[in-house]
Specification:
It is a single chain. By secondary structure, the protein is an alpha+beta fold. It contains 38 helices and 27 strands. It has six domains: 104 residues, no CATH class; 187 residues, Winged helix-like DNA-binding domain superfamily/Winged helix DNA-binding domain (Arc Repressor Mutant, subunit A), CATH 1.10.10.10; 123 residues, Jelly Rolls; 183 residues, Son of sevenless (SoS) protein Chain: S domain 1 (Son of sevenless (SoS) protein, Chain S, domain 1, Up-down Bundle), CATH 1.20.870; 91 residues, Phosphatidylinositol 3-kinase Catalytic Subunit, Chain A, domain 1 (Ubiquitin-like (UB roll)), CATH 3.10.20; 234 residues, Son of Sevenless (SoS) protein, Chain S, domain 2 (Orthogonal Bundle). α24 packs across α36, α27 packs antiparallel against α28 and α27 packs across α31. It holds the Pfam family DEP. Keywords: Guanine-nucleotide releasing factor. One of its GO terms (cellular component) is plasma membrane.
Length: 998
């Protein structure tokens, strides 16, 4: 399809049409041709005379009113590949004037989400079910003297989904679902005035007739698996957790049975005559799939709102998304909040178009949400920018013309855009509320006034932040009372990310001995100040105050890092120095306060060490201290408490080889992968240089460990096995028989559900209490950087997977239908009790297990589960709604009072996104905004662990030692393939059950 003048050779290729496409329908309406059609290959075309097609249209206007170019119908657009010449054959109708529409709608057009064939199929299925079984929902409506045929209001669509859904869904969740269908073109606004779906009884939408995508037909053809399986991949930590909670692959009934292949029109396909229960199941499968795409569509729809029309909820939603945008990682939260109110969405469907050219005036700053662009100087491509990258800011900062050109590299690129006026206003606002401290002409500390009137450290060098911390007077009524008082806690909690223990100790000693005057308060200094203008020496009173603050800072450091830092030899030298200096300077009270803080920390550490045999804690302290007794240890931790993992703890590992050899190793938890491989190769007679340490999962997947990896024993998956394999080996390793062995231990059916839940909660609380705060810091910033173990965190994360697969395994291994029903009901009751005990980790693990495809497909089993328990389970599922960053779950968790065992996968996910979405260093300075966000997540641990478990839980969990052993040592199958095989063995599908009669 071409546009231009053939005689002058000024012709542009608009798109290419493939088999099944049509063109030229503008003759129906008497429109002038605006494009040319040129064949590129020998073609066979079906032609319909203009008079005939007009006659057909006049006789069947209701059925053909959705033709491109019809009155009130928007012009269709082409879908281009990366060469911006070819169109996907999915578009069955292409208007002659489509090129004009694309040129004019590059910014104002609705958000064009990438076609998900499963989403399209689910949307068309819903349309057909409504046509066949809920036809009264679609009706003619008159607005402003004009009648819109076969449409329905936004409010009625939302009400219908809520009524038909088997799961309790909020209106906001359902709005997001319809928004996804609006973005995909399944529905449209009758006047094409709204890009956002509105829950309004005066706003009308109609379903768009469109053919079923070929990809969807193939995926659900009889020759395929016969199932509708959604495999949408999300950028999260599911690969770390091995849990479908974050990146869910749910198995559904075949939605294709609801839509007969081929037809896309209003009566083109007939629904299957299935019972009401099957219809409800089919609808729920569609709803569940669309709900997964809803949040993304809702964010897009919010972004395309005019900044003036955004509500506080809209701004908060956008702000939460900006936290995860890489390009904004170096900006403070205050700036992100400002940007959330002004940032706009810009969509470009056509590849090859120039976003701007060299020499153009700079009007906007762009961030790529989807797609990629080429940056050109002249005609030469200098670089390619991808998702998360930004460009165009320099011209705004310098108020200069563009120095490069930017060309769209692929179709359907989506950008965030900040216009010049908003950009300038935000910069001026930030500058006005910013205090900068410079040394030798270089910026070393930056503070920003928050909306609450307090000054927050935004970024700085580690040394200057420490110096600033030790010279502040943040006491009530002090000169720096407006400074954020949590700065010290956040600093000493996140310090491993930006400063070593030795550098920190040196800085504290230097500050204690320093004679320099204190740093002026930000309330007293100009917005930009050089330290060279300060007095030469501090007064005696200032020196005394500083030394007291050094002791105060060390106490905070100990309370934050606990035994992790107290055991450090460098820190112990600092303590010895302070003890001597404090005694010399006559600061006995400060010395006593420091000793009390140390005693409390060492006592807690000694409790844990004592449970492993009463050995020494390994702490060298400058004052005598009584060891805790065995009885004290039992009272503190419980008789059967599991002690926390320590670096010097030893574990037994079995290392396998490709030729089925095996050896046993006795290694420390702190041993690196290199250490373990060296010892294994020595015992097995292997060449160390040509082998690597790997884990073979129960699925056969191979995971290669880096040489610096620690905590190998706890980092492995539930049924993983260690191998010493040749490097770059492509040979497939089959899992060992015991990796997928069916558990022998019977399910404790006779035990009470509440008692089982109490045992689960007691053990989970023990594991959760063992996690050191610093382990999450190491996890966030990369444990390999610190040579520190995170085994307690690993064990807690793996516990989630153990409970999840325990649920699936116990159900799938039971062949008796009635017993299987009882087990499912038992698990629902156990989950309910775990929820009442605030054990959210175990509660959600069981729910995720019940949501596993191997369990959801057991239709005969679920039909016999009591209605009351099914409804309770549906309420549990509603809490798992991932929309708006798991807002439902977060809101529920915030209402709970500690002690709480939180949902660990969500905590790890948040930590992961904090690290990926925010730079640790910006312009050579520590990004303390990021440190503050990380510290907030870590401090949540302290809040969750306030108080102790209820007496009922303690009493129930100490009753049955046999049940206790069972709970603490689950034998499970974690291979989804094996679980699906077991599921099919105990309950085959109706299709395979049906046998022809002779």
């Amino acid at each position: 399809m071409l546009k231009g003048d053939m005689e002058t050779s000024k012709v542009n290729s608009i798109c290419s049409l493939g088999e099944g496409s049509s063109f030229g329908e503008s003759v129906i309406f008497g429109n002038k041709r605006e494009t040319m059609i040129v064949t590129t290959d020998p073609c066979q075309l079906l032609c319909v005379d203009a008079n005939h097609i007009r006659q057909i249209y006049d006789d069947h206007k209701d059925s053909m009113k959705y033709f491109s170019g019809a009155p009130g119908r928007p012009v269709s657009t082409c879908s281009y590949d990366t060469n911006h010449d070819n169109i996907d054959g999915r578009n069955s109708v292409i208007s002659d004037s489509s090129s004009l529409a694309m040129e004019e709608s590059q910014i104002s057009m609705p958000v064009a989400c990438a076609l998900e064939s499963e989403l399209t199929l689910a949307g068309l299925t819903i349309y057909q079910i409504i046509n066949e079984h809920f036809s009264d929902l679609i009706a003619d409506h008159q607005v402003n003297m004009y009648t819109y045929k076969r449409c329905c209001s936004g409010q009625s669509l939302v009400n219908w989904v809520i009524k038909q859904s088997a799961v309790n869904r909020s209106r906001q969740q359902v709005i997001a679902m319809w928004q996804a269908l609006l973005c995909d073109g399944i529905i449209e606004h009758t006047l094409n005035e709204h890009n956002q779906f509105l829950d309004d009884d005066k706003i009308y939408y109609r379903f768009v007739d469109r053919p079923i995508p070929e990809s969807a037909k193939l995926a659900n053809s009889p020759g395929a698996s016969g199932r509708f399986e959604y495999r949408r991949t999300q950028s999260c930590d599911s690969s770390i957790l091995e849990s479908p909670i974050m990146s869910r692959s749910s198995t559904h009934n075949s939605i294709s049975s609801g839509v007969e292949g081929g037809g896309g029109g209003g009566g083109g396909g007939s629904p299957t005559s299935s019972p009401r229960s099957s219809l409800s199941s089919l609808l729920e499968d569609c709803f569940e799939l669309i709900a997964q795409l809803g949040p993304e569509a809702l964010i897009y729809a919010t972004l395309i709102k005019s900044p003036d029309n955004r509500s506080d909820d809209d701004i908060q939603l956008i702000y939460e998304e900006l936290l995860h945008v890489k390009a904004f990682g170096h900006l403070s939260n205050a700036i992100k909040e400002e940007l959330a109110s002004v940032v706009q969405l810009e969509n470009h469907p056509v590849a090859g178009k120039y976003l701007f050219k060299e020499g153009d005036a700079g009007t906007s700053w762009y961030i790529i949400l989807k797609g990629s662009v080429n940056v050109l100087v002249g005609k030469d491509v200098m670089c390619t920018l991808h998702e998360g990258d930004e460009f165009g800011k320099l011209a705004l900062l310098n108020n200069a013309p563009r120095t490069t050109s930017v060309q769209l590299r692929e179709p359907n690129c989506v950008f965030l855009r900040v216009d010049r006026d908003d950009f300038t206003r935000i910069l001026l606002s930030v500058e006005k509320n910013t205090v900068k401290i410079k040394e030798h002409g270089k910026e070393v500390l930056l503070l920003e006034k928050s909306t609450g009137g307090k000054y927050l450290v935004v970024k700085g060098t580690p040394q200057k932040m420490l110096e600033y911390l030790l010279t502040l007077d943040i006491s009530p009524g002090g000169r720096d009372a407006a400074i954020d008082e949590s700065f010290a806690c956040d600093f000493f909690l996140t310090y491993p990310a930006f400063i070593s223990v030795s550098e920190l100790c040196d800085g504290l000693i230097k500050c204690y001995d320093s004679q320099a005057p204190p740093t002026p308060s930000p309330l007293e200094r100009p917005r930009s100040m050089s330290t060279e203008s300060l007095p030469a020496e501090a007064t005696e009173e200032q020196l005394l105050t500083r030394r007291k603050r050094v002791v105060w800072a060390v106490s905070i450091w100990v309370s934050m890092a606990k035994a992790e830092v107290v055991k450090d030899p460098t820190f112990q030298k600092l303590l010895q120095y302070l003890q001597k200096s404090l005694a010399k300077d006559g600061l006995e009270e400060d010395q006593r306060n420091l000793n009390m803080c140390l005693m409390d920390t060492i006592k807690r550490s000694s409790y844990h060490e004592g449970t492993k045999g009463g050995g020494s804690s390994g702490l060298s302290i400058p004052f005598p201290m009584k060891k805790p007794s065995v009885s004290e240890i039992k009272i503190e931790l419980g008789i059967c408490a599991v002690p926390p993992c320590q670096p010097n703890d030893t574990v037994n590992l079995r290392i396998h080889t490709i030729d089925k050899k095996c050896c046993r190793l006795h290694v420390k938890l702190s041993s690196t992968s290199r250490d373990i491989l060296t010892e294994a190769c020595s015992k097995l007679g292997l060449d160390l240089s040509s082998h690597e340490l790997c884990e073979i999962k129960s699925t056969g997947e191979k995971i290669i460990f880096k040489e610096t990896d620690l905590s190998i024993a706890t980092e492995m998956t539930v049924n993983g096995r260690l191998y010493a394999l040749p490097k770059d080996s492509e040979a497939a390793i089959s899992p060992l028989p015991d990796q997928n062995q069916k558990p022998i231990a019977p399910f404790p059916e006779s035990e009470g559900s509440r008692e089982i839940a109490a045992h689960l909660t007691s053990y989970d609380w023990n594991l959760f209490s063992n996690i050191q705060q610093m382990e999450l810091i190491y996890q966030v910033f990369g444990r390999h950087r610190f040579s520190r173990i995170t085994s307690n965190l690993d064990v807690m994360i793996r516990r989630f997977n153990e409970v999840q697969y325990w649920t699936v395994t116990e159900i799938c291994k039971e062949s008796n239908l009635q017993k299987r029903v009882k087990i499912i009901q038992k698990f629902i009751k156990i989950a309910s009790h775990c929820k009442s005990f605030n054990n959210l980790n175990c509660f959600f693990a069981i729910v995720v297990g019940l949501m596993n495809g191997a369990i959801t497909r057991l239709k005969q089993t679920w039909e016999k589960v009591s209605v009351k328990l099914r409804r309770r389970y549906e309420q549990f599922e509603a809490l798992m709604d991932p929309s708006r960053n798991h807002r439902v779950l977060r809101a529920y968790q915030q209402k709970l009072q500690p002690p709480i065992i939180p949902f660990m996968p969500l905590i790890v996910k948040d930590a992961f996104f904090l690290q990926e979405g925010n730079e640790t260093f910006v312009d050579g300075l520590v990004n303390f905004e990021k440190m503050r966000m990380v510290a907030s997540k870590v401090n949540d641990f302290s809040y969750y662990r306030k108080g102790s478990l209820a007496n009922e839980i303690k009493m129930l969990s100490n009753k049955n030692s046999e049940l206790q052993r069972y709970i603490r040592d689950f034998k499970v199958i974690d291979s989804q393939q094996v679980l699906m095989q077991m599921s099919h063995a105990i309950e085959s599908s109706k299709r395979t059950q049906a046998t022809p009669t002779s």
